[in-house]
Amino acid sequence: MRVGIACPYTWDVPGGVQSHVRDLAEHLLALGHEVSVLSPVDDPDRADLPPWVVPAGRAVPIPYNGSVARLVFGPLSLARARRWVREGEFDVLHVHEPTVPSVSMLACMAATGPMVATFHTATARSRALQVFGTALQPVLEKVSGRIAVSPAARRVVVEHLGGDAVLIPNGVDVARFDGAAPLPGRPAGPTVVFLGRIDEGRKGLAVLLEALPELVHLVPDVRLLVAGPGDVDDVRAAVPRSLRDRVELLGLVEPEDKPRVFASGSVYCAPNTHGESFGIVLVEAMAAGTPVVASDLEAFRRVLQGGRAGVLVPVRDPGALAGALGDLLLDEPRRRALARVARAAVERYDWQTVTAQVVAVYETVLAAVPPTAHVEVDADLEVLAALLEDGEEDDAGRVLTTLRRWIAERPRRDRVPAPR
Amino acid sequence: MLAVLLLALATLYVTWTAGRLDRLHARVDAAWAALDAQLVRRASAARAVASALPPGPQREALEQAARATLEVGFAGREAVENDLSRALRAAVPLLPRGDALQELESASTRVGLARSFHNAAVRDARVVRLRRIPRALRLAGHRSMPEYFEIDDTTVPH
């Protein structure tokens, strides 16, 4: 099947939606489907840009939904999106976050065929959606299959856009993380890993840094390994001078190094404060076998199975965070037990499982195209009857008659479908 | 001058809404066709697994329920599909694992997907149809109001 995927955020910048799109595309390709991804790209000449990514221009940074989103919008981008849709001749168009003013929304405006949309955002009160929800309705009602990546994201869809969405969780390449080796040349000893944008408040690095003095008090030889893009100097300035040598700042890590970053930690810490719809990093850490200490957010509670597969701590509470990290760092059997439960819990998030579910959605949406001619319908009926012919002979005949009657009863029987 | 402009805008709005309603109805029809196809697929999968059951009341009930869904028209469809779901829920724990059960699981999942998409399409169409202006001007033409399809489609415990 030919699948067109629209990704609203800049391809070059790491982010949850971008990696979701990349992994989905790769797994669809592996299953033998044809895939083209339309996405904003800052540097279209970069060597590692996959051949199936079609650049939609440079993005402009705009504060959105508590983060800085990099978006493209405007007549030029619309023209590009339109050309991509036309030249792609996709069987199904899969737009991600079509409510974000970027290429997904543009592709949605430009396209007419079978369309699937995935909603990632879980922000309960999205101002943009409140303002533009009604105005977006005519664009969004072209979408015939809606997917939400989490119950929280699904609630946003129901509340702001009306109507339901099917739940398909984010995917993780479990095999890529399973059994990764630690980064080379790192000192041994208890290590807490943080991975995420370090300059984005809701990722909660500030809470972890605030917990550091007390954690050092509990576990004197503890080290902190911080990976993620952002201003490293700002972070260093936020750490008391005496503790600076314990904090190792890796900056932006390449996706292929992520498993090794997790494997370098005794514990992975996700001190996020709000706005998480899913918690894919948690699943990755769990797949890598690193026990997780995370804020008690709804999305995280779900991934950690209510605390069975990881430790949940109160949100924005440095004291509780230090305590939980200290306890776990000093208790190796418990770390091992948590890692074991976590490894079993991530199976349902494996991309192979998830891709099969997404393909089922594509097939369902593809089945929902108006029949083109009665002759073809009749041919389909013969095929169907043949399939049903495992019963007695008159059974198949009766099924055929019944189906014919249904077709005749359908309200659209008098309408001639437009040629596609 | 102003009146002409307003009239032009009103005409534009009405034409656009009529076109939009047309698209929405087409989406409902298509979604129903898909749901219909998945329900038929589920019924035929149910018949296949029924033949794997030992002869007896359980098998007869399942075969009867599957047959009933193929014989009913649109009215009454929800009730017989619910009966089939119920019969399947009773039968599934007794079934051997294998291709037939897998096909049933796959068909049941797709019934769930198709039903969700169908009802979303119905909702989108109803929202526009029930607005004051489209209703007053009968922009939906002679088409009947799209109806939700509500059944309990869980058949296989997860």
Automatic annotation (TrEMBL), chain A:
It is an enzyme of class 2 (transferase). CDD domains: GT4_PimA-like (cd03801). Residues 14-176 form the Glycosyltransferase subfamily 4-like N-terminal domain. It holds the Pfam family Glyco_transf_4. Its EC number is 2.4.1.57. It comes from uncultured Frankineae bacterium. Gene3D superfamilies: Glycogen Phosphorylase B. GO terms for biological process: carbohydrate derivative biosynthetic process. The keyword Metal-binding does not apply. This is Phosphatidylinositol alpha-mannosyltransferase. One of its GO terms (molecular function) is glycosyltransferase activity. Keywords: Glycosyltransferase, Transferase. PANTHER family: SULFOQUINOVOSYL TRANSFERASE SQD2.
